[in-house]
Write a structure and sequence with these properties.
Length: 62
């Protein structure tokens, strides 16, 4: 296992969660932008925009 540095949030993280398959990592932070990353290389897949405050946690749909 090797550490991966994921740059993308501007405020502290509040939550991290892998999807069921373990290939995606979801991150929530106080910067209002939940983000999804490829777990193998830390590349950002996308950002969910539209929140007006800190996002404390998230959960995927099966």
């Amino acid at each position: 296992m090797r550490p991966i540095l994921m740059k993308g949030h501007e405020r502290p993280l509040t939550f991290l969660k892998y999807n069921r398959d373990g290939d995606l990592l979801f991150s929530c932070a106080k910067d209002h932008n939940p983000t999804v990353w490829f777990a193998d290389n830390g590349e950002r897949l996308g950002t969910y925009r539209g929140h007006n405050g800190a996002v404390w946690c998230c959960d995927g749909i099966r």
